[in-house]
């Protein structure tokens, strides 16, 4: 199981997967999910913080 499978809320996991596993741009992710680019950025930032904390 991947660490990102434990990301919460589910939209954060979806945004992270679209951005890094499917290599989509912030704009593409925002359009697909129906949120702003700022929201995508915020979710990615929080996801990265959470991942960093859990791999220490």
Concise overview:
With 56 residues, the chain is mainly α.
Polypeptide structure, described:
- This protein has one domain (8-54).
- Helices cover 68% and strands 0% of the residues.
- The protein contains three helices and no strands.
- It has helices spanning 10-21, 26-33, 37-54.
- The chain is globular.
List keywords for this structure.
68% helix; mainly alpha
What is the topology?
Blueprint: H1 10-21, H2 26-33, H3 37-54
Helix pairs in contact: 1-2, 1-3, 2-3
How many alpha or pi helices?
A: 3
For the largest beta-sheet, the strand count, sense and barrel status come to:
none
**Beta fraction:** under 5%
Number of strands: 0
Helix content: 55-70%
Distance between the termini: 17 Å
Radius of gyration: 11 Å
